[in-house]
Amino acid sequence: MNKRNLAALLLGLLCLTQVSAKDYNASLFGIKSNGTTLNTTAIQKAIDYISEKGGGTLQFYVGRYLTGTLFLKPNVTINLNEGAVLVGSTNPYDYNLETPYCALIYAKEVDNIAITGKGVIDGQGRALAYNMMDQIHQGILDDDLKYDRPSRRRPRGIYLRECDNVKIQGILIKNTCDWVQTYDQCSNIVLDGITVDSKAYWNNDGLDIVDCKDMKVLNSFIDATDDAICLKSHDANSRCENIEIRNCVARSSASGIKFGTVSAGGYKNIRIINNKVYDTYRSAITIATPDGGQVEDILVDSLYAYNTGNAIYLRIGKRWMGEGRSVGTLKNVTIQNMYCEIPATKPDAGYDYEGPIEDLPRNISPASIVGLEGHDIENVTLRNIELVYPGGGNPNYAYCGLKPADLDAIPEQADRYPEFSQFKELPAWGLYVRHAKNLTLENITFKALARDYRPAMVLQQVDGALLEDITYIEPGGGKKQLHTYKTTGLVQKK
User: Fold this and answer.
1) What is the pLDDT of residues 23-66, one digit of tens each?
2) Is the Cβ–Cβ distance between 251 and 198 less than 8 Å?
3) Which residues of 319-337 are buried (b: 16+ CB within 10 A; e: fewer)?
4) Which of 231, 325, 364, 464 has the fewest beta carbons under 10 Å from its own?
């Protein structure tokens, strides 16, 4: 072997040694995989040690690793190999209850962190929640039990705050006590190929993205007993920006993909592309700003929704304004290449924690774009969309007519929680629009499977609307399917 080849071999061996030196087997730190030994201290020691040594990967192999709260540190990856399960303790005092947000995996102002692999994070959330309830009822743990459930300090699965360069890849996260995972004011985040299966308790949001920037959510499956994929804005001086959600599947006993409810700062440049929603109680897509946030430049492309309670809900509200706050804005939204089927029955039937029975009386609600008096939703384009409804709206059960008095009586409900059913009965079976400006509808098909007493579409107090290639399909036919009221600048093309 010549000197050049020998040098290359030695360099290769050196590089291999450096890489392998950054992989640490969990057993090296005395971490037990028997599912009964509480490993919190040992795992935390491993994380601290790896970070202090410049970073690396903590490898978990086949087994069940019981733990309480773990604090991630810079330059550390937790890799859960296939067969490895990180199991959350069911004792509430094994968690960081005294921090603003407690979680099984927690980090604040930490960069270059990752959780990867084909393993599982199991929060054991139902047992944990019941144990918290027991402590609350005995007066040991202080909590106000909002809605007869622990309302504060319920541990989440993952909570990362103000972290940069984050990767979550391949893992299954299941059965948390509260929101499954929250990324709060983080940047440069990639979630790729993850699975969420969390129907253990109330408020199991599958994914919460709070005031984050430069984030991708890719190729993931989320099944949760609250909003599946939820963008939020808690800080009036921040917002979600440059977010991409692509090739994901969502199932939820609340909303499929949702902006809000809290929307203090707002959302900008959000791309939601090629996603599927099914068996979802509320809306396939909700974009709402009830708390003063500015919402703009939103693209929803190729969204397919089946057995979902509502297709589209866009809303400006006036809820938690506070002193000096102004009403939010919602503009420049495009929803295109969408197909949605709305059932006549409750779409989340069978969940352990189903959504509540909505305000009654109410026939099936239409897709809705609803601003506020003096605060129009602007520049919305709906293009290449087919909405399939059960029809069958019954005026003898609940009625909302088309007379001026009927339409004027629909309440503004400015300070209410924004939900598609909040207005109770609406006068259209397909699409209802009020307080909007510069609305464009292109190649839209509204299909009712049974005859409905209402028209397909009502435009109320709309300033400028272009309707092109609109198709209405309803048994019986012969009915006027578009009704306008206090609407100006309407242009219709075939």
Assistant:
1) 999 999 999 999 999 999 999 999 999 999 999 999 999 999 99
2) no
3) bebeeeeebbbbbbbebbb
4) 325
Residue 10 CB neighbour total at 10 angstroms: 10
State the Rg of the chain over Cα: 25
How far apart are the C-alpha atoms of 290 and 321, rounded to whole Å?
Answer: 8
SS3 content of the chain, % helix, strand, coil (to 5): 10, 50, 40
pTM for the predicted model, two decimal places: 0.94
Q: Look-up: residue for tokens 């599927």? A: 276
Helix H or strand E segment including 406: helix 404-408
Sign, CA torsion 380/269/299/263? negative
Per-residue 3-state assignment (H helix, E strand, C coil) for 44-61: HHHHHHHHHCCCEEEEEC
Q: What Å distances lie between residue 471 and 335, 385, 454, 467, CA to CA?
A: 17, 10, 16, 11
Tell me the domain boundaries of the chain.
Answer: 285-494
Tell me the pLDDT tens digit for each residue of 142-173. 988 888 888 888 999 999 999 999 999 999 99
Cα 239 → chain centroid: 15
Confidence of residue 357 (pLDDT cuts 50, 70, 90): confident
Q: What DSSP line would sit under 161-192, residue for residue?
A: ES-EEEEEES-EEE--SS-SEEEES-EEEEEE
Q: Is 470 exposed, middle or buried (0-12, 13-18, 19+ CB in 10 A)?
A: buried
**CA-wise closest residue to 47 among 113, 103, 119:** 113
Sequence-distant (≥ 6) Cβ neighbours of residue 485 within 8 angstroms:
402, 404, 407, 458, 459, 460, 461
